[in-house]
């Protein structure tokens, strides 16, 4: 699947928690220089996968290979080569940015000039030189995230794991965080594996592993995945109606269209969306549609096509209860 | 460039040529010491930043002490010879002062170990758990930090020792230091293990109210060792040995009170401190983390 050798090979991981199977046969590779996104709804097993790779949980079965050698349980040498960014930053907010980085350097056995150089470089990468001596609880969410990623990269890990790294960040902080993630991979030395439930985020990765209910349902580049949905580079037509299911049935009957109901909307894939919109509007009685829109398909549509349910799982569940 | 020469297979070649080999990583010993010293230093940095909070930890027990001394001292005066007057009050202040020192250490360790719960689930300790250091180093570093903070607190509290009738010149300082350090190790280890296994701040609060504070009450802090069932409870209470050891040290290193002797109290305390460290380390392995 990838041309360069895999730095991380995950084979047939299985994990159960409280007698509930969380992961089944999870197998994938990550190559150096690659940014890979594990995409799926909340509860699909992506955070558990990351937690196993970070050594926080032990799988019931399966194997992990790092750089061609098997990773043992409680493998310190492996952990020295991994950086982990948690959903909530692993920082002491009462201490300054510099103090946090200095403590992280110590915990990786760095001392003296090596440690100081690593701390300075990390502050510079995070763009926090001018706020280095302020307590972290005076920093914004975006600054904390940048500091935490710099903290996780301080010892130059070869694998950076990030669990939902941009949750709660505004647009600007989101872009800066992604610049930082890209920089990590650009050197070609390190690989990045991150989890996300947001399709627009996964689209920025080099490769997307789509997970649903503890299984991998697809593993490909974002373009290739989107290409599966729109084989001829088509569009998604989104129709909103009072009763989306009735509308979907009606369109299937009168126009022979394959429709998918997603929340309050009906989605129709079409090669030439603008032409389909005209046909649909002319075929339906006036007032049946609330709104009509057209867009290029994204990974959200891929997920819907692969699993039959929307990526935004909690909202879908609510609708099921309501219906 | 020498790192690029020993290449055998194409697979390894790419990896080695792009980066210095992992042999450049610090030694295991450097990492373990790093974890211990980082966690120790972190607590010291926080002590400096949160002065007012830690001052409160000292003032509250001292306030208890002053009130208990005033209140219970007068009860004693009533039941004993009326002529004793103020002397009974001084006696009770002197009697309860070792327990107050122990309470300062207990409160410090409770606060510090309670913060472990959140720290581990969504804070600083997460990086220790995924880092290359061992859990034992994490426990030891945290304990050193809490012990140091406890000693600073106890030192502040000792400023009141002359008021309790303990002349600073006649105190056996080395045994006092040993008793406070070993006691802090014991209580931190115990608190750490509880925090790790319980995993919720509410649960920890409940245990504090039902277990830790009652253990202090029957430690000989407020009343001397008794006969009968209470005597057995007091002998089984780990905190009794800390109170006894502190009491002997304050008295200048001689045996005072009805509790254990200086040698017994210090020996039991040392064993309990080791046991608590082992317990805390074991507890971090039992529940290594949640998915």
What are the defining features of this structure?
heterodimer, A: 323 residues, 12 helices, 14 strands, 38% helix, elongated, B: 291 residues, mainly alpha, 11 helices, 76% helix
What kind of assembly state do the chains in view correspond to? Answer: heterodimer
- Which structural class do the helices and strands of chain B define? mainly alpha
Which two protein chains have the largest interface (Cβ within 8 Å of the partner's Cβ), and how many residues from each?
A-B, 48 and 42 residues
In spatial order, strands of the major sheet of chain A run 6-7-8-3-9-10
- Topology as H/E string of chain A? EEEHEEHEHHHEHEHEEHEHEEHEHH
User: Beta-strand level of the residues of chain A, as a percent range?
Assistant: 25-35%
**Largest sheet of chain A at a glance?**
6 strands, mixed
């Amino acid at each position: 699947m990838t041309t360069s050798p895999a730095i991380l090979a995950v084979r047939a991981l299985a994990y159960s928690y409280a007698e509930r199977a969380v992961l089944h046969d999870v197998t994938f590779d990550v190559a150096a220089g690659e940014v890979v996104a594990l995409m799926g709804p909340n509860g699909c097993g992506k955070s558990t996968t990351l937690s196993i790779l970070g050594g926080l949980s032990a799988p019931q079965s399966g194997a992990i290979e790092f750089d061609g050698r098997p990773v043992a349980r409680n493998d310190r040498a492996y952990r020295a080569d991994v950086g982990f960014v948690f959903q909530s930053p692993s920082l002491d907010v009462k201490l300054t940015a510099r103090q946090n980085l200095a403590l992280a350097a110590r915990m990786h056995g760095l001392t003296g000039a090596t440690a100081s150089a690593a701390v300075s470089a990390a502050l510079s990468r995070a763009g926090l030189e001018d706020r280095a001596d302020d307590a972290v609880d005076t920093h914004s969410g975006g600054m904390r995230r940048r500091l935490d990623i710099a903290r996780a990269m301080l010892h130059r890990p070869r694998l950076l794991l990030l669990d939902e790294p941009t949750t709660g960040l505004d647009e600007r902080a989101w872009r800066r965080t992604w610049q930082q993630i890209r920089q990590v991979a650009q050197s070609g030395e390190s690989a990045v594996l991150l989890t996300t439930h947001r399709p627009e985020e996964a689209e920025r990765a080099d490769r997307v592993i789509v997970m649903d209910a503890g299984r991998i349902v697809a593993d490909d580049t974002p373009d290739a995945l989107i290409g599966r949905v729109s084989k001829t580079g088509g569009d998604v037509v989104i129709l909103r109606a009072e009763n989306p299911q009735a509308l979907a049935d009606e369109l299937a009957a009168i126009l022979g269209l394959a429709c998918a109901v997603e929340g309050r909307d009906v989605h129709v894939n079409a090669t030439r969306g603008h032409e389909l919109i005209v046909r649909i509007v002319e075929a339906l009685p006036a007032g049946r549609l609330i709104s009509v829109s057209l867009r290029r398909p994204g990974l959200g549509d891929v997920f819907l096509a692969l699993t039959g349910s929307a990526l935004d799982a909690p909202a879908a569940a609510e609708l099921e209860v309501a219906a | 460039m020498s790192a690029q020469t020993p290449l055998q297979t194409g697979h390894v070649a790419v990896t080695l040529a792009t980066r210095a080999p992992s042999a450049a990583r610090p030694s295991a010993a450097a990492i373990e010491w790093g974890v211990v010293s980082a966690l120790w230093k972190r607590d010291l940095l926080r002590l400096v930043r949160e002065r007012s909070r830690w001052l409160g930890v000292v003032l509250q027990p001292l306030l208890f002490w002053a009130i208990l001394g005033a209140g219970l001292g007068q009860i004693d005066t009533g039941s004993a010879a009326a002529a004793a007057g103020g002397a009974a009050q001084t006696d009770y202040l002197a009697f309860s002062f070792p327990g107050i020192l122990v309470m300062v250490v207990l409160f410090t360790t409770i606060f510090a170990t309670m913060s472990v719960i959140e720290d581990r689930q969504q804070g600083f300790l997460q990086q220790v758990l995924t880092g290359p250091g061992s859990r034992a180093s994490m426990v030891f570093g945290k304990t050193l930090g809490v012990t140091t903070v406890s000693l600073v607190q106890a030192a502040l509290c000792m400023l009141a020792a002359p008021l309790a009738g303990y002349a600073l010149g006649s105190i056996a300082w080395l045994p006092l230091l040993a008793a406070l350090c070993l006691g802090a190790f014991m209580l931190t280890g115990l608190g750490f293990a509880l925090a790790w296994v319980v995993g919720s701040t509410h649960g920890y609060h409940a245990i504090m109210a039902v277990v830790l504070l009652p253990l202090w009450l029957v430690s000989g802090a407020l009343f001397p060792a008794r006969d009968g069932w209470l005597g057995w409870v007091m002998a089984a209470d780990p905190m009794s040995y800390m109170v006894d050891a502190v009491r002997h040290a304050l008295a200048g290193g001689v045996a005072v009170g009805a509790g254990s002797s200086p040698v017994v109290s210090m020996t039991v305390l040392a064993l309990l401190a080791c046991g608590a460290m082992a317990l805390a380390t074991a507890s971090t392995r039992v529940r290594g983390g949640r998915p």
